[in-house]
Every structure is written in C-alpha cells, then in structure tokens.
Sequence to fold (154 residues):
Amino acid sequence: MKERWLPVGLIAGALFLVNVVARLVVRFAAGNDDDKQVTIGLWALFAVGAVMIPVAFWYGRRHPMLRLVADLGIAVVAACVLAVLVGPFVSGATPFGDGVGLVFRQFFYFVGLSAIGAVLGVLALMTLGWDYRSQSWKRYIDRAGTKPRRIVRR
Fold:
C-alpha cells in the first residue's frame, strides 16, 4: 500500500509546491499589476507541465500504462484541488473570491497542462522503447528466442 500511494502523494505535493511558490512570487513581486500576475501564473502552469514530463518518464518505466494513468491522474487531481482551494489563501485571497468560473478555469488549465506534460513524457519513453510494455516484449523475445535445454536419456 505504501509503495503505491507514497509516490502519488509526493508527486501531488511537488505539483502543489510549484503552485505555492508561484503564488508567493505573485504576492510579493507582482503586487497589483495584473499583467505580471497573469505572466507569473502562466509560467507556473508551464512549470507544472514541465514537472510532469520527467515524472511520467520515470513512472512509465516501472509501471504498466493503466497504472501510470490512474496514479498520475490521482496525483494531478489532488494537487489541482489543493492548488485551487487552498492556494488562494497563500496569496491572500479566497478560492471563490473572483467567482466560480475562475475556479473551473484554473482547474482545467492545471489538469490540461499537466496532462500535456505527462503525454510528452510518455511519448518520449515510448519513442526510446523504455516503457514497461516494450521492455516486457523485449524480455519475451529474448526468452522465446533461446532453444530449450536438451535432455539426454540414458
């Protein structure tokens, strides 16, 4: 149980941490300048997507695709819920202060860019042939290509 959910929790925590750092930068560096706030927010979303590339690459080498999608999906949704509902308090606002529409947009942007990053990581992994299934096929071919041991009867 711990072997499965600990990495998922760490990934969710890392994604939430990226969001918290971005919110602190917005709070202390951007002030009331909307252009700077939007720019920092976009860079933070791209950073979340960029974090997902090596995470998906690493996770895909060790686990089948179904588990990768489930585990990373849970991690991304958990980090997104934290970022959308807890994150605004870091920057001195409230989650629904600007309306429900903004909450949904943040949710979809976060999940969308995370998914794009994960897909890029998995595609790189598949291109190199290092994914779980490719390695399984390679082991099967290596094993099937050998001749069985010859038994001598006396």
In short: DSSP finds six helices and no strands in the chain. The chain has a mean pLDDT of 89. The two ends are 52 Å apart (CA to CA). The helical segments are 2-30, 34-62, 65-85, 87-90, 100-128, 132-144.
